[in-house]
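Journal club side-thread
Mid-discussion, someone asked how the predicted structure for our own chain would compare to the paper's figures. Pasting it here so we can look after the session.
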Amino acid sequence: MGLINKAKLKAFFLISGGENNITTGDIHHSIDHFTGLVKSCNIDTTVEEKMPDVAQIKSYNLIFIDLYNCTWGDEIPLAIQKIVCNARTVFFNAQKSKYDEKQLLLSGLAGIFYLNEGLDIILRGITKLQKNERWFKRETMNSALSELLIKDNRSNPLTARPLQRSINLPSLTRRENTIIGLVSCGAKNQEIADQLHISPNTVKTHLYSIFRKTSSRNRIELISWTQNYAVCIN
């Protein structure tokens, strides 16, 4: 599998730490296995038992948190929540069915890997993360998108024709404004193309420009951005 990486990334691995409710102990073989795979993808890795301060965290592109010895309950510790807010954070060695993936995604987590996952799945996930994308199950992404769409529609009860709504951010072109409105209402690329009488490839080109201008990596983040921007201008 060829991994394309324009710039070498830096990753920090938190493998234990009492302040984070992760039990200190011998390094489990799965940690060596996972960090080895990350290194094989041309990513610099640092493995520690204590999280660096905020200033140091910003020097890393990805923060991986090992959950093998995790003693959390349903509530993620505040220390970990702060990390998620300050850096692209990924959980690994997680126990299946223990966490609500959708809530982790909506809270800002960049991805999650489960204990004993196959080599192909881990490498595929790392590749996604290298491309600044998120790594969650497809059904999780769809569920989170649906929830954001429901919230967005409820917050705009006076919209008579939702497929023609636009955001009107000055830095966006008129066409981009229109496409953001369509995406926010759940329209897929082909539906947008049909609505605007353009090709699906042209829609993709506009979306790439929109993602760049709004610092969004996918539709979920774009819809979330749209909601936040609407609140700011209102």
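Post-session note: Residues 9-136 form a domain with the Rossmann fold fold (CATH 3.40.50.2300).
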